[in-house]
Every structure is written in C-alpha cells, then in structure tokens.
Design a protein that fits this description.
The protein is mainly beta. The protein has a domain of about 240 residues: Porin (Beta Barrel). About 5% of the residues lie in helices and about 60% in strands. The chain contains one helix and 20 strands. An eight-stranded antiparallel β-barrel has the order 1-10-11-14-15-16-17-20. The protein has a four-stranded antiparallel β-sheet with strand order 9-2-19-18, with no helix packed on it. A four-stranded antiparallel β-sheet has the order 3-4-6-12, with no helix packed on it. The longest helix is centred in the first third of the chain and has 17 residues. The relative contact order is 0.20.
C-alpha cells in the first residue's frame, strides 16, 4: 500500500469519470507491462494538509472613463435652472437648485459648466508580474481502486488562497474644453441656504428661467491622471482529486472542482486639469477613491507531481487553470473591470499526511 495515503474501506464504485479514465490507463498499463509497485502498510487516517506558494498569471484589468452625459440647457456642474410645471411663458421657475452659497452674488445666482474635458487614466491589459500569494488546503482520501497493476487513490479537498493585485497608471490627455458661465436673476428673493434643490411640481421661491448673462469660452486643455487599482483576491475552492503512483516516491495527481473569488478592490486616483486660456477658472484637483467587493464563481483544475519525503511529509509542484466571471464596479466617473476568465497559476509546497 502506498505509504502517503491510508486505505479507507469504501463500498461504492469510483465516479463514472474515474472508471472511464481507469479503463483507458489500464489498457495502456497492460501494453507497457509496468511492474506492480510494492508499498509498506500505513497506519494513517487518510487526511492531509497542503501548504503552497502560489503565483497567479493573466489577471487582467481595465479602467475606462464613463461616457459623459449629454449637456442640456439649464443643467450646470453646480446646479440647474429648468422649467417647472407652469411651463416657460412666465419666464420664471421654482425648479432650480445650487450647491454653494458662494454662487450668490448680489441679486444673481451664478453657475458654471465644463464640457468635453479630456480625461487620462485608461488602463487596459494584464499585470506583467505574477501575483505572489499562498494557498492552504485540507483533504481526505475516500478510497482506492486498481488501474492495471497500479493502485490509485481518490478523495476530496477544500481550501483557501490569497493573492494581492495592484496596477498603477500615470498618463496625460489633451483636448478642447468648452466653458460656460451663466447668471440668473433672483428678483429680490432671499435664496435658501445651499445646497438647495427645488422640484418640478413646486411650490417654491422663483427665479428667472433664462440667464441674464452668459460667457462661453473654448480652450486647449490637458489632464494628468495618477491612479492605482488594488484588489485583495480571496480564493475559495472545493473539489475532488485522483492520484496515480509513478514510482515508490513519485506520483501524479489531478484536482477538479468549484472555485469562488472574492475581489476586495479599491481604485484611487488624482486628476489635474490645465487650461491654456487663463480666462477659464482653474478646476480643483480631483483626489478620490472608489471601493467595492464581490464574489465571482467559477471552476479550477490542477495537475501536480508529488514526492514522498517520508510517511508523513511530502513535497509537490504543479500548475493550475482557473475560470471565474468578471468583476465590475464604478464611481467617480470611472468604470473598472477585473477579468478572471482565464487565470493560470504555478504552485509549489509541502503536504502533511496523517
């Protein structure tokens, strides 16, 4: 009996897939005339832990600018002045709002709008360096079956892995910005303390629907983006394994099963705008972050080569393929996608059997 795994009585037949695989390998075994392997009897209970370092490859990410909302008359970056339920005939409206008391100057309410601002910071591609992390699995042997002259074992495993993801981007974009300044008369009313937002139905204080004065300026503009996308990838898996001896010390094993990734993510960035025309007021730098987390389901398959150091300790190396759904989130004018639809990984570690 193979010393690294203890025989547990198991009255059922192996799954159909294992039976088919066993038949094929039995034929190959007979043709090759492999000699039977002799193993010492084991006293172990058939359980094991696997501790591994794990390097992930081909995790891809993209960060894109949200498509701008089409600008309509009366909508501004710092408020709105729109027709109310009474229509436009009176030239007045109670359907208006503003953000800050700083917009009030004498009997005027001032608004601004920046259109067609250039935005840098588009990220698209995969992380060049591997994502270095680790994995811990617990497993149990369910039973054994003969394939030709060799005795195979099979069972189940459950585990947790962690890998950090981080990608940074610094870029510039250029374009032409359209700036609009508009002033609406308050007509002697005392406006509410900002921020304030009136409604279409009203009632409320009324101001001029149409601006008393407007200023429109177009200018060359540039933006500088400096951002980082970070994600802690927590990987949970459950599956079944089958192991075939090659020599008394070496064996190969295959694991297949369900996996789920929890992506705990944050996009943080700083964006600065510069205008060639000094008549356009300088915008404050955007310094913000967006966080999100979510589970993405999938599956995994891992192929390992095991080496038995002694009855209770072994070492292994292997490769894995994993497929999970994409994780998407957004905020602060950006859409973020983490793509897990084709992850490759390399593992190496030790196993403890008892």
């Amino acid at each position: 009996m193979k010393s690294s795994l203890f025989r547990i009585p198991f009255s059922r037949l192996a799954p159909a897939s294992l039976t088919l695989l066993a038949g094929a390998l039995s034929s190959a075994d007979a043709q090759l005339k492999l000699p039977p392997l002799e193993f010492e009897e084991s006293e172990k209970a058939g359980y094991f832990f696997r501790f591994a370092g794990k390097a992930l490859f081909n995790v891809r990410a993209s960060v894109d600018q949200v498509a701008p909302t089409p600008q309509t008359p009366g909508n501004y970056d710092n408020g709105f002045v729109l027709p109310d339920i009474g229509g436009t005939a009176s030239g007045l409206t109670w359907n208006w709002g503003f953000l800050s008391d700083d917009q009030i100057a004498s009997d005027m309410l001032n608004f601004e709008r920046y259109s067609n601002l250039p935005h840098g910071g588009a990220i698209s591609g995969e992380k060049d360096d591997p994502l270095i992390g680790g994995e811990l699995l617990f497993g149990v042997e369910f039973g054994r079956f003969d394939v030709g002259t060799r005795e195979w074992a099979w069972g189940a495993e459950i585990g947790y892995g962690f890998n950090p993801f981080k990608i940074s981007n610094r870029s510039m974009a250029a374009g032409t910005v359209d700036y609009l300044a508009a002033s609406h008369a308050l007509n002697g009313i005392l406006p509410p303390v900002g921020p304030y937002s009136g409604t279409f139905e009203g009632p409320g204080p009324v101001i001029d629907l149409n601006p008393t004065s407007t200023t429109a300026i177009s200018s060359a503009a540039t933006s500088t983006f400096d951002g980082t996308l970070e994600s802690s990838l927590h990987n949970f898996k459950f599956g079944f394994w089958v192991e075939a001896p090659v020599t008394q010390k070496f064996s190969v094993a295959l694991s297949l099963g369900y996996s789920s990734i929890l992506a705990d993510s944050e996009l943080s960035f700083r964006e600065t705008f510069t205008f060639a025309n000094p008549a356009i007021p300088q915008l404050a730098d955007v310094d913000t972050s967006v966080t999100a987390d979510g589970w993405r389901n999938g599956f995994y398959g891992q192929l390992r080569v095991n080496y038995e150091i002694n009855q209770y300790l072994g070492a292994f190396v292997g490769g894995e393929f994993q497929y999970n759904n994409r994780f998407k989130f957004g905020g602060a004018g950006r859409n973020v996608t983490l793509d897990f639809t084709g992850i490759y990984s390399a593992v190496a570690g030790v196993s403890i059997d008892w």
